[in-house]
Amino acid sequence: MTLKTKIPTVLAAAGLMTTVFAGAATTADAAAKPTYVECGAAHKVTKKMCAVFKAADKASRAGGYHWDRTGRCKSADRLNWHPSGRACDLIYGKLGSPAKQGNLKDGNKLVKWLVAHHSKYSLHHVIWQSRIYSGGNWKARPYPCKGVTDCHKDHVHVATVS
Ligand SMILES: [Zn+2]
Fold first, then answer.
1. Measured in angstroms, how far is the CA atom of residue 149 from the centroid of ligand 1?
2. 3-class DSSP state of 127
3. How far is the CA of 88 from the centre of ligand 1 (A)?
4. Which of 113, 135, 149, 156 lies 20 to 30 angstroms, CA to CA, from 121?
């Protein structure tokens, strides 16, 4: 098994596929045909997802808070955001272990950057540490979840509107 095929499998096993909440697509979403691009470590994602991925990659490298591993972006599963190429999981530390100390601080910095740039990059929502940031004022709200990965204690999830 190559690393490429292994990552989605590992993520599925870790329960990443159980984040049902954010997924409901509207009819308009379904009707829109997104443009997919090859996007480096994110592989095949929408143009908007690729734009934020690359910008966040650059900013976090410059700021010294880059994630350790890119998890599932577009992949075949039953949920909407990831399979449609509109979401990526950015892992801090080890998947399945809650981010602590430096990793926790780094993830916080990334989330701060994402929230600050949500409008520029057409973000739909960001999830990290049992909190979701989205819509309206983009203030943190509790994210109902169970377990390390489902609660996004080990990775930042970012999704774009299209
Ligand atoms: Zn995710």
1. 9
2. strand
3. 6
4. 149
